[in-house]
Specification:
The complex is a heterotetramer. Chain A is built from 19 helices and 2 strands. Chain A is mostly helical. By secondary structure, chain D is an all-alpha fold. Classes of the chains: A mainly alpha, B mainly alpha, C mainly alpha, D mainly alpha.
């Protein structure tokens, strides 16, 4: 095994091993726990950096081990996987630091960080999975590792949320398994191929392919929170905020969206899908989700729940971008995978900081919060503007490409969809910004924890927030640079659509 | 004609044993059923089996059941049969299918009985049933002694049940003292006869057990305890001998339970004798052994 | 063959020896040690038997007593039988170690009884004679019932039901044997396999035997005795009962229909078995979901999981494709390991949490994390999520179903099964994540017992990583 | 009608009666009797089958002897178990539910 083979394995194990070790730690061994976490973070970032460089140089990172007949265990670092891996690695770092700050003084931290690390490992595994079987393995591991995080608080409410999370995701996983088994029976589970490997399946298997597509997309759609499969997501908001951040920006929902992208491009391929005419329902569902979830978001009075519905809406951007089957839309979808992650995690970090510092949960309590916590509120503003799609933030770039992609494939209504969606985004985010900066605080804050350091909130809550807010800005400003997410997405699309 | 009568009475007794209004009646009818069954077997040219059935099926089972009746609380609730008609219909349907399935077999012949005859010389015994039991199908017999042992272990696991010991009946007491040596002699005779005619380890063991049970009922036999080495040896020796022979023949001989022809007679005699002791001891304990005797 | 016989004879000898050693009423401390050691040696011999058998791929026969067929009782050793011998020894070893550590001390009669149970399973596996199988079945039932009785008067009622039903079942089986002997005049399975015809008598005889075996194997709809008996038995005994005892009759059933029955009859029976399997999955799963006690939950889950095995058997007979045999035996192995883990974990929970109720598991992830992990990992294997053994078995059942469109409806049975298993497993696991009452005193755990419960779960939890080789190997093993 | 045929049918009938009894009756001792009836029925069938050849089939007769010993063993255990149950399980006829929490 040479080093190019070893890297994908190291990428997965750099968080898995610390996770398993952390389980064995006692609650008081905080230093060791933090050390292990940071060691894993560092190793993972280095490995991801090297792999990014390697893939841009045309290197192939691939390792294979026997697993099932006709379906080996493959970890493969291609351009698309690295897009997702880099997102996970960077945001894992930010979230870990944030979580250390957030959970200070609460019990069961070893259990939390253990599962947290496993969760990230599963995400990286999902990203690096080289075929459907491997994907399934990590996808289910992700389901299992996330559950303890969702119910971390151990209250009845948390357990209820956990139950609905499991009900949705286990059912989704089972459908996914069925879909994969159908495809496996047809053609085995070979490695993902740009352009899809099912092109060679004889046409008489069309019905089987259609059923399998429906099973796969339904199964993945649960995690990607396509309406009406989204029910678990708003409930899961009872989890500690770092978990919500992880669920929404990096791990669970992204695994679903990423899976849909994989299935569309690397399993079926645009050509097969066009022949079978399978994407139309998916496009319809995604478009409906974009609008309907925004409307639901408008109705929410809890900050985190509003953010949750916003996630539901934004995820369908990615799905839509992939399902439109045109290169420009694909770039938009892929780049939004990154952008949405970074913007949404910023917003969640802010929400968590409000909650920990001032006990603010409801939107109505946010009046004038910018005077008390100006830095956090600034970050929130950047995130909110990004979500709305106002230049020069990252969100603008995504929407631009998505709308242009719609025009390219001859579906001009997509432009209108994004206009309406943008207006709705503005309608549910801008009032928050206005309240935060310009309203006058009506009453006392529900709680007030002034950290001794004299900062507006705990340092470990503030720094990751500012970091991701900065990234949001940079990604918009430097969109033209080749090494940014946009450049990388174009690289992926160039490989997927060899024109 | 006689057979028809026996058959009808057997079925009637069977139904009666299940439905009799008192438990005592049930047990009595079942005992009678066992005795008549022995007669039926005798009429089917199986006199040695009839003997075994009389001793085991009727005698020991009857003793067990009557003993349990003494210990169990009086029956308070009357049997209420649930869905008797549907169960009866289902059973009748099964019976019809069974009879239809069994009928053709009377015209079939088995290839096994003709195989027994020519191999009798090599078997080490003269009586075919004993040859099958201890040689041709010795493995069955070994496992079956293990079943007997297991039943004893099962009883041993149970907590002791306390019952006032019934007063011995003085006439029986006198008789049993006289009978005991006779029973031992007859048992030994049956064992010896087993190799050449109807008889064998089980009949002998069962008879010895029946004798021992009778003696114990009259408190003639001394107190026994599981902690006594002699008792444990008597219970285990049959199986131990059998298993030793099996292991030895597999390790040093021609295979599992393949007796070397020169020794087969001696080996079978050893197995049979020890098996008789174990069967007698185990059956006695099964029927009469009290919990505390087995525990300590 | 001699290796296999050694694997049988060792526990047998030890059982007699330990009985002979029972001098006083107090337990003899070396008895557990001897028994566990002997089990380990027996495992080694089973492994040797498996190695010789799997390497040669051959079937060996032994005519007991050296007499010629069909007069003699024949023992038959196939790779699958060797594998099962090893499996039996392995499970006995794991539970034996646990019982050795158990506090309060397990009754001394456990040791000879469990050794005899081991013996009877080995004899059952090796035998190829339908009457000899009857004797081994009785041996199996009596040892199992005696073991259940070890937990005292509360177990007497379920034990008695178990015994009486089991005896009735044996006599159904024996009547089937009588019909077959009446028809064909032989008892040897290898001889019978060549001469059985698809006539009425044969079909009815097979049905009688099947009914008896299904009752003994707790296969739906004849499973009603199982949950009570498994619930009341002492913990290591429950593990043995669920992991092994119900598999004995299943193995005979498999031989009966796979090797003995004419293909026409087998094809007829297949859909019935498979449908029964689906119903077992759903109804057993539902009862497990509703179960108030931890052990009852685990026991009903056995009923449900046996549904998968029954489905595998049914599909094998119906579709006549070897891969379903692989699925069937993978289920048996995976379920055996998972169940041992679950019962040992359940036992630990009862002692540590001081209650039998499922609701007592509240907060178990914090108070008894290792035990809870054992339970959870084993449970995940029962659901069949990757990379567990349960997943591997489910996959081998599911994937071939999709190769032909008209078999797709059977896949919905697997789908249902997964949902129901997930429901009852996660119901228990979820309780573990409730915030634990902090006031409790820290308890003194026996770490070794906890890890003993976890070990089989880890084995089955990572089983699928060897999936490709395992399936290929099992395909070879189940050939004969 | 030959005696073999007659006893074959009688054996089957007794077996079926025992089966029905096992399903119907409740008292444990009666159930033991029912099981024993099933056994006797099968043995009678076997003995009748043995008598179809002359001399009688020794293999079948040996099977009956083995079966008898197995039957008496199981019966003895069942009867003793029933007595122990009657004395120790406070005589409740129904299956008692496991008691509440032990703690």
């Amino acid at each position: 095994m040479n080093w190019t083979n070893a890297l994908p394995v190291v990428a997965v194990f750099s968080s898995l091993l610390p996770g398993l070790l952390i389980f064995a730690l006692r609650e008081q061994q905080q230093g060791l726990r933090t050390g292990l976490n940071l060691l894993g973070v560092t190793v993972k970032l280095i490995v991801v950096g090297v792999m990014l460089w390697g893939v841009s140089q045309g290197l192939d990172f691939r390792v294979e081990a026997p697993f099932l007949p006709g379906g080996a265990l493959i970890l493969h670092g291609d351009a698309l996987s690295l897009q997702f891996v880099s997102l996970s690695a960077v945001l894992w770092m930010a979230t870990t630091i944030y979580a250390i700050g957030y959970l200070r003084g609460t019990p069961l931290q070893s259990r939390f960080f253990g599962y947290f690390s496993i969760c990230v490992s599963a995400t990286v595994g999902v990203a690096l999975a080289g075929n459907l079987i491997t994907f399934l393995l990590f996808y289910e591991l992700l389901t299992l590792a996330t559950y303890p995080l969702v119910v971390h608080r151990g209250t009845r409410e948390a357990l209820d949320a956990g139950r609905s999370y499991l009900a949705y995701t286990v059912a989704g996983g089972t459908l996914l398994l069925m879909g994969i088994a159908v495809l496996h029976a047809l053609s085995g589970s070979p490695q993902f191929v740009p352009g899809g490997y099912l092109a060679s399946v004889p046409a008489r298997h069309g019905p089987a392919l259609t059923v399998a597509f429906a099973l796969l997309i339904t199964g993945l759609g649960v995690k990607a929170a396509l309406i009406p499969l989204h029910g678990w997501l708003p409930k899961a908001m009872v989890a500690p905020t770092p978990v919500s951040a992880l669920l929404h920006a990096v791990a669970v929902v992204k695994a679903g969206a990423f899976g849909i992208v994989r299935v569309i491009y690397d399993v079926y391929g645009a050509e097969t899908l066009e022949q079978l005419d399978l994407t139309a329902p998916l496009i319809a569902v995604a478009a409906f989700t974009v609008i309907f979830a925004s409307l639901r978001a408008l109705q929410q009075r809890h900050l985190k729940r509003r953010l949750a519905y916003s996630t539901v809406s934004q995820l369908s951007y990615i799905v839509l971008g992939a399902a439109l089957l045109g290169p420009i839309a694909a770039v938009g979808g892929l780049v939004h995978l990154i952008h949405q992650g970074i913007m949404k995690i910023t917003l969640f970090f802010c929400a968590g900081a409000f909650e920990k510092t001032l006990g603010v949960h409801r939107i109505s309590e946010m009046d004038g919060i910018g005077r008390r916590m100006p830095l956090t509120m600034s970050a929130f503003t950047v995130g909110a503007l990004g979500m709305t799609g106002i230049p020069p933030t990252a969100g603008f770039i995504s929407k631009w490409f998505l709308a242009a992609g719609g025009l390219e494939v001859g579906q001009p209504w997509v432009v209108w969809l994004f206009v309406v969606s943008g207006l709705l985004n503005a309608a549910y985010f801008l009032p928050l910004v206005y309240r935060g900066w310009f309203s006058i605080p009506t009453a006392e804050w529900p709680e007030d924890h002034q950290p001794e350091s004299g900062w507006e909130t705990r340092r470990m809550l503030l720094l990751p927030t500012l970091f991701t807010a900065l990234l949001t800005l940079l990604m918009g400003l430097l969109a033209g640079s080749a090494l940014g997410p946009l450049g990388w997405s174009q690289l992926i699309v160039a490989r997927e659509f060899p024109l | 004609m006689v057979d028809l009568a026996i058959g009808l009475i057997l079925v009637a007794l069977a139904i009666g044993a299940l439905l009799s209004s008192t438990l005592f009646g049930s047990l009595t009818l079942f005992f009678a059923f066992g005795m008549l069954m022995a007669v039926a077997w005798a009429r089917l040219h199986a006199p040695d089996l009839a003997l075994a059935e009389a001793a085991i099926g009727a005698g020991l089972t009857g003793a067990l059941l009557f003993n349990a009746l003494n210990k169990s609380p009086p029956e308070v609730i009357k049997e209420r049969l649930r869905h008797p008609l549907s169960v009866a219909l289902v059973c009748a349907a099964i019976l019809a299918l069974l009879v239809v399935s069994l009928l053709p077999s009377l015209d079939q012949v088995s290839p096994l009985p003709p195989m027994v005859g020519p191999r009798m010389d090599a078997s080490g015994v003269d009586y075919p049933v004993t040859a099958v039991l201890l040689n041709f199908r010795g493995w069955d017999t070994l496992l079956e002694i293990a079943v007997l042992l297991l039943a004893l272990l099962g009883v041993k696991v149970l907590l002791p049940t306390h019952t006032p010991a019934p007063q011995p009946w003085s006439l029986l007491l006198g008789w049993s003292k006289t009978l005991a040596p006779v029973i031992v002699v007859v048992g030994g005779y049956l064992l010896w006869r087993g190799s050449r005619g109807a008889g064998g380890a089980f009949q002998a063991g069962a008879l010895l057990a029946a004798g021992a049970v009778m003696l114990r009922l009259n408190h003639v036999l001394p107190e026994i305890r599981w902690s006594q080495l002699l008792l444990r040896i008597s219970v285990l020796i049959g199986l131990a001998t059998f298993l030793t022979v099996a292991i030895a023949t597999a390790s040093f001989g021609d295979g599992w339970l393949t007796y070397p022809s020169a020794y087969s007679k001696a080996l079978i005699l050893a197995i049979e004798t020890t098996a008789t002791i174990s069967i007698a001891a185990t059956l006695t304990l099964l029927v009469e052994g009290e919990g505390d005797e087995l525990q300590s | 063959m001699n290796y296999a016989l050694a694997s049988l004879a060792i526990p047998f000898t030890v059982a007699l020896l330990t009985l002979l050693l029972q001098r006083r009423s107090e337990a003899n401390p070396i008895v557990p040690a001897i028994t566990v050691l002997a089990t380990a040696v027996s495992l080694v011999f089973a492994g040797l038997a498996l190695e010789t058998q799997a390497v040669s791929g051959a079937v060996s026969h032994l005519n007991v007593g050296g007499w010629d067929s069909p007069l003699a009782i024949r023992l038959r050793l196939t790779p699958l039988k060797a594998l099962l011998l090893g499996f039996v020894a392995l499970i006995h070893l794991l539970t034996g170690l646990y019982a050795w550590r158990a506090k309060p001390k397990i009754a001394r009669d456990y040791w000879p009884l469990s050794a005899l149970l081991h013996t009877s399973l080995a004899a059952l596996i090796l035998s190829a004679d339908i009457f000899n199988l009857y004797v081994t079945l009785e041996l199996l039932s009596l040892s199992a019932v005696a073991l259940v009785c070890l937990s005292g008067p509360k177990a007497y009622t379920p034990a008695l039901y178990y015994l009486l039903l089991s005896l009735g079942a044996s006599l159904c089986y024996l009547m089937g044997v009588a019909v077959i002997y009446g028809q064909y005049g032989v008892l040897d399975m290898t001889v019978l396999a060549g001469i059985m015809e698809a006539d009425h008598s044969t079909r009815f005889a097979l049905l009688l035997m099947t009914a008896g075996l299904m009752l003994k194997g707790a296969l739906w709809p004849l499973h009603l005795w199982l949950p009570e008996a498994h619930t009341y038995a002492p913990t290591p005994v429950s593990a043995l009962l669920s992991g092994l005892v119900v598999k004995g009759p299943l193995f005979i059933l498999w031989q009966l229909w796979n090797n003995l029955a004419p293909e026409a009859l087998a094809r007829e029976m297949g859909p019935l078995f498979a449908a029964g399997g689906v119903v077992a999955l759903v109804s057993g799963g539902w009862s497990a979901f509703r179960a108030p006690f931890i052990k009852t939950l685990v026991a009903y889950s056995t009923v449900a999981q046996l549904g998968y095995a029954l489905m595998g058997l049914g599909l094998l007979l119906f579709l006549q494709e070897r891969i379903y045999a692989v699925a069937l035996w993978l289920f048996v192995l995976a379920h055996g390991l998972a169940k041992v883990s679950m019962f040992l974990a359940a036992g630990e929970m009862q002692t540590l949490l001081g209650s039998k109720r499922v609701t007592a598991m509240r907060g178990a992830t914090q108070t008894i994390p290792i035990t809870m992990s054992a339970f959870a990992i084993a449970g995940i294997s029962l659901i069949g999520m990757p990379p567990t053994g349960g997943f591997l078995a489910k996959w081998s059942l599911l994937e071939p179903l999709f190769t032909q469109a008209n078999h797709w409806p059977w896949a919905s049975g697997v789908l249902l099964g997964t949902f129901v298993s997930a429901a009852y497993v996660f119901r228990a696991i979820a309780l573990g994540f409730y915030q634990a009452p902090m006031s409790r005193e820290p308890r003194h755990f026996d770490r070794v017992s906890q890890w003993l419960a976890l070990l089989p779960a880890l084995l089955v939890g990572l089983m699928a990583f060897a999936g490709q080789d395992l399936i290929a190997w099992m395909a070879g093993v189940t050939q004969t | 009608m030959s005696p073999e045929l007659l006893y074959l049918v009688v054996g089957a009938t007794i077996w079926a009666v025992g089966l029905g009894g096992l399903l119907l009756v409740h008292h444990m001792l009666r159930r033991v009797i029912a099981v024993n009836l099933m056994g006797s029925g099968v043995f009678l069938v076997l003995v009748a089958l043995a008598a179809r050849s002359s001399p009688p089939d020794p293999v079948l007769q040996a099977l009956v002897v083995t079966g008898l010993v197995v039957a008496i063993s199981a019966t003895a255990f069942a009867v003793r178990l029933a007595s122990a149950r009657a004395q120790h399980s406070s005589g409740t006829p129904e299956v008692e539910r496991p008691g509440g929490d032990e703690s």
